[in-house]
Amino acid sequence: MWCLPFSWLYRIRPSVVHDPFKALTQSTFTNDFRACPPNPNQLRWQPFDLPKNPADFVEGLATVCGAGDPKARSGVAVHVYACNQSMKNKCFYNADGDFLIGNGMLVTFQQGMRFSVQVSAPSRGYILEVFNTHFQLPDLGPIGANGLANPRDFLSPVAWFEDVDSVDYLVVSKFQGSLFSSRQDHSPFDVVAWHGNYYPYKYDLAKFMVVNAVSFDHADPSIFTVLTCPSNTPGVAVADFVIFPPQWSVQEHTFRPPWYHRNCMSEFMGLLYGRYQAKEEGFAPGGASLHSMMTPHGPDQEAFEKASCVELRPTKLEGTMAFMFESSFSMAVTQWGQNGCSKLDGSYYRCWQGLRKNFDPNWKPQQTEEPLTSPEIIQS
Predict the structure, then answer these.
(1) Which annotated residues bind homogentisate (predicted)?
(2) Residues annotated catalytic, as ranges
(3) How far apart are CA 224 and CA 247, in angstroms?
């Protein structure tokens, strides 16, 4: 039975006690996705810079791409953050939707939840924002009761409060795609107790239970879905959060890296650490790529040649964690993502230019031989 998300908060003071909000200018952060002309090309970004000057989480926010309109409660946005100092007497909340933040540990702050980010060293990560509804666990279907991200591994906060007065506290709000700030003379983290089912949560990606093909063929990446934000159309997601964690690869008679493919989704990928199987060079931790709807993509030349010739014995992929924000929205790149970050790799397309045909019309397949053509799929 579905239950309406809600929570009761027992505060020392009502949250309405604050000064009026004022516009806060931050040129790198936006929900306006109409500024740049459409670009259907495969896009890749080199690792985004850590800040050279002092910057907290809010000051280090930058928007890479997105689609839709928060005023219409429809769409998604992809941001990155880079910070080197904590938020002191400062908090943030998003009135437009949910923030899913990933940098090894997944943290989700649902719409309206105030939070403050404390860091002990320079930090950067990725954010998936959804406007429509909330993230939830995917339906497991034939997998059954256990698998993928298990509910027992998600952690929620216990009651904690601070009763702090006579301070200059800054509350930053994201509202209708813009940032605003308000001042108050006390800490907003004065919740003495709470109950309900609407709260922030975190999840250790290392706890993900991988399900994979154990005989032949490359399974659809949907089996690596951690969380999904469903749309009103059955089987179509506003956005999925998918990871590619350490795993065993055991398929026989199979091209094991991802297919060459085009599909009806936008795929934004990032690498948290290690190397990604389909592109071991050029796709670095802290960077990203965007493959738009029906734009072909897949393993680079080096990965194709390696996977086509390697002996297919059981292999464990270790020391890696890639992820994908996959959305049914056609995402557009922002001015910062296109030009301002100075990280867009103009030579990305060259990683496929060395691929050559291997088709031989006179070739006669043997039962134990591998196919000499590269698999490609179109999904709609």
Answers:
(1) 276, 297
(2) 218
(3) 11
155: number of Cβ within 10 Å: 13
Residue 186 marked as a ligand binder: no
134 is in an annotated binding site: no
pLDDT for 257 beyond 50: yes
- Can you give the three-state secondary structure of the chain, one letter per residue? CCCCCCEEEEECCCCCCCCCCEEECCCCCCCCCCCCCCCCCCEEECCCCCCCCCCCCCCCEEEEEEEEEHHHCEEEEEEEEEECCCCCCEEEEECCCEEEEECCEEEEECCCCCECCCCCCCEEEEEEEECCCCCECCCCHHHCCCCECCHHHCECCCCCCCCCEEEEEEEEEEECCEEEEEEEEECCCCEEEEEECCCCEEEEHHHCECCCCCCCCCCCHHHHEEEEEECCCCCCEEEEEEEECCEEECCCCCCCCCCEEECCCEEEEEEEECCECCECCCCCCCCEEEECCCCCECCCHHHHHHHHHCCCCCEEECCCEEEEEEECCCCEECHHHHHHCCCECCCHHHHHCCCCCCCCCCCCCCCCCCCCCCCEEECC
Whether this prediction's pTM lies above 0.85 is answered by: yes
346-364 burial, b if ≥16 CB within 10 A, otherwise e? eebeebbeeeeeeeeeeee
Cβ neighbors of 310 (< 8 A, separation 6 or more) are none
pLDDT range class, residue 65, cuts 50, 70, 90: very high
Q: Is the model's pLDDT at 1 over the cut of 80?
A: no
Q: Is the pLDDT of residue 370 over 70?
A: no
> How many residues belong to the chain?
380
Q: Does 276 carry a binding-site annotation?
A: yes
Higher pLDDT, 184 or 257: 184
- Residue 297 marked as a ligand binder: yes
pLDDT tens per residue across span 131-173? 999 999 999 999 998 899 999 999 998 888 999 999 999 999 9
Exposed/middle/buried for residue 274 (C-beta within 10 Å: 0-12, 13-18, 19+): middle
Q: The tokens of 223 are what?
A: 């089996």
